[in-house]
Design a protein that fits this description.
This protein has 21 helices and 22 strands. It is an alpha/beta fold. It has 3 domains: 160 residues, no CATH class; 119 residues, Rossmann fold; 248 residues, NAD(P)-binding Rossmann-like Domain (Rossmann fold). The longest helix is centred in the first third of the chain and has 34 residues. It is elongated, with a radius of gyration of 35 Å.
Length: 654
């Protein structure tokens, strides 16, 4: 599509420079200080100054209305009438303007509320003048044309006066602030509601040094038009032609429905023209007031990973949690802390937060307290493998729902200490599940992992053993608790995961370490994973293993390159990518289900139910065996025992 020639766009230069500008700024500030009451405490002087200005504006508007009505040839009769009515009309306008709070408002901040108050006050004055037609003689009442023009002129002159002060304030502030800021000329991607709001905000804050100069959009209905005086060009790819003439050095994406693929393309366009690429906050953050429209941020790797927004049945989740006692283990971890955040939003009777690490538990408690959600919190320091502590805690708090997120999760560490993986991941889960059933917990949700499928690591196998434990507990005689497990892949930004590691390595100048060029992983965001876990808790009938739709797997090498590029560097040139080889227990790719498990849809399109085809086994006998070998601590014997119990487990050979 052809695009129009781009005019030379200047960065809103101030008309005054050097000493003249400095004197002008000082003069403007003194005027604003007097009229806005920011100099000293001279309220009386401010009031008298406003009274004089408004009286001159209203008096001039009334006189001009008579002149316009008779084309500047007013008869003596109406000249006398104008002189007779001038003082009462001006006094009436001043009284009404004062009664609507316009003498108290800051004059240089003029918005819709002030404009509405001004119009209402002037309408009342016009109505009172119209009333003279019914209570006085015709010669005493001003002509209807005069009344109408007086209303228009009064509103127009006061509005103009206020707008001039607003512009003067922006000039005076810019004279002080812009000296230390680098000018950024912005092309806004998306001439829609969010883009319009961003442009409006930036145009009202010209002193920040960020200047919107044009819009780009793919919508043909918008191309060629203007928004707040800024031209709309298109398609978006035309920025390569426009960038030089418009001197664009920053792109801001405001397309909230842009696909990850489209965002990658825009980021690439920005890289080609040497411009940084930012993105506005989400609609949810803007609507909640969490952030403002001008709080743009750099495009992150999370924006480019292709996650589809999750639709949750919040009412069903609310019915599950509301007015109930909920317990979360591992409450200070990445998944556990997000579980706590989302659970308190559904108004539980009590949220028991359990973790053995004091600092992380304190942090999530303080975060929730700062959000005024501290009344339902009970933070408890406890080790989930300590049976006496767990039994005492469950008997005291009597939870109705347990989300078991506590676990050792780092694969290489657990390869070196398999006894700790067995104790904390498998044996602790078995004990917690048994205790939960004994105290009458209604639902028990176990957080599992895709590494439990055909495991090659101790950590993954310990999670698979935990899945079998809770399935056996579901079948136990007299059990009334609904036990279920939820499997998902890696979560973006969790502690120790690949993205925080890459960010730290980039900050240190590299290299980025990738274990294998073909390694792939499934990813989802922490809030997304936790939201689906809560949704799963409403679907389970007991004994199921659920898996979450993880979309397509992502190649770690591609992620490393993208993160380097998003940081403004070139892969292999500015920052090296180093191949280190697979670590003990690692796979090239992850799986979500074993061949013996049947994959079934559920009521939610992003959640699937697995029916385990394996026969029930004597869980207590192999738990006894695991306790024995774990207490001895011999890694070879532990791995051999795990392989006998989970035949699909392929242990790493030391």
């Amino acid at each position: 599509m052809a695009i129009a020639n781009t005019p030379e766009l200047s960065p809103f230069p101030s008309p005054l420079d050097g000493l003249v500008r400095e004197k002008f700024v000082g003069f403007v500030r003194s005027i604003l200080g007097l009229l806005d009451g920011s100099v000293g405490s001279h309220r009386v002087r401010r009031f008298l100054a406003l009274l004089l200005v408004y009286a001159l504006l209203f008096g001039g508007s009334f006189l001009l209305a008579y002149q316009l009505r008779w084309d500047f040839v007013v008869s003596e009769e109406f000249v006398a009438q104008c002189r007779q009515l001038l003082l009462p009309v001006v006094l009436c306008k001043l009284v009404l303007l004062h009664s609507f709070g316009q003498f108290r408002s800051v004059l240089s901040y003029f918005g819709l509320a002030d404009f509405a108050a001004l119009c209402t006050a002037m309408i009342v004055v016009s109505v009172l003048m119209m009333a003279l037609w019914f209570v006085a003689t015709a010669t005493a009442a001003p002509p209807r044309g005069v009344i109408l023009m007086d209303f228009v002129l009064s509103v127009g002159t006061v509005t103009g006066f206020r707008l001039v002060l607003r512009i003067a304030r922006s000039w005076s502030v810019s004279g002080q602030l812009r000296t230390t800021l680098e000018d950024r000329r912005i092309a806004i991607i998306g001439a829609r509601d969010v883009g319009e709001a961003l442009a409006k905000d930036l145009l009202s804050k010209r002193w920040t040094g960020r200047y919107p100069v044009l819009f780009l959009d793919d919508d043909s209905n918008r191309i060629g038009r203007t928004v707040h005086g800024l031209p709309v060009y298109g398609p978006i790819e035309s920025i390569k032609t426009l960038a030089l003439g418009a001197r664009v050095n920053e792109l801001v994406i405001t397309l909230t429905d842009a696909s990850p693929k489209r965002m990658k393309e825009i980021v690439d366009l920005g890289r080609q023209i040497g411009a940084s690429t930012l993105i506005v906050p989400s609609f949810t953050q803007l609507a909640s007031g969490e952030v403002k429209i001008d709080r743009t941020r750099p495009v992150a790797i999370e924006d480019l990973l292709g996650r589809i927004p999750v639709n949750l049945d919040s009412e069903e989740i609310g019915r599950l949690i509301r007015d109930r006692v909920v317990l979360v283990t591992g409450a200070g971890g990445s998944i556990g802390s997000e579980l706590c955040r989302q659970i308190v939003g559904h108004e539980p009777k009590l949220l028991v937060m359990v973790d053995q690490t004091e600092n992380v538990l304190f942090e999530i408690e303080q975060e929730l307290i700062s959000n005024r959600q501290g009344m339902v919190l009970l933070p408890m320091i406890a080790d989930v493998s300590d049976e006496s502590a767990v039994v005492s805690l469950l008997e005291r708090t009597r939870p109705e729902i347990i989300f078991h997120a506590a676990a050792h999760k780092h694969v290489p560490l657990m390869e070196r200490q398999p006894s700790e993986a067995i104790k904390n991941n498998t044996l602790a889960t078995a004990m917690l599940a048994r205790t939960a059933s004994a105290v009458g917990v209604s639902r028990f949700v176990f957080i599992s992992t895709d590494k439990a499928v055909n495991p090659t690591s101790v950590m993954g196998c310990s999670k698979r053993l935990s899945e079998r434990v809770i399935q056996a507990r579901q079948r136990a005689l007299g059990n009334q608790t609904k036990f279920l497990a939820v499997r998902f892949g890696n979560v973006l930004g969790s502690s120790g995961s690949v993205i925080p590691t890459f960010r730290k390595q980039i900050a240190q100048g590299g290299p980025l370490t990738v274990t294998h060029p073909e390694m792939t992983r499934y990813f989802m965001t922490i809030p997304e994973a936790v939201g689906l876990v809560l949704q799963t808790a409403t679907l389970g009938q007991g004994g199921e293993i659920f898996i979450l739709d993880m979309n397509e797997p992502v190649k770690i090498m591609d992620m490393a390159r993208q993160m380097i590029e998003l940081s403004g560097y070139k892969p292999g040139i500015d920052i090296e990518i180093k191949i280190t080889g697979l670590r003990p227990g690692e796979k090239l790719y992850e799986e979500l289900r074993h061949t013996s498990q049947t994959h079934e849809p559920t009521e939610h399109s992003r959640i699937f139910r697995l029916r385990d085809g394996s026969s029930s086994d004597d869980v207590e006998s192999w738990l006894h065996e695991l306790r024995a070998v774990a207490s001895e601590g011999d890694p070879r014997r532990i791995k051999a025992a795990m392989q006998r119990i989970v035949p699909e487990y392929t242990p790493f050979a030391d």
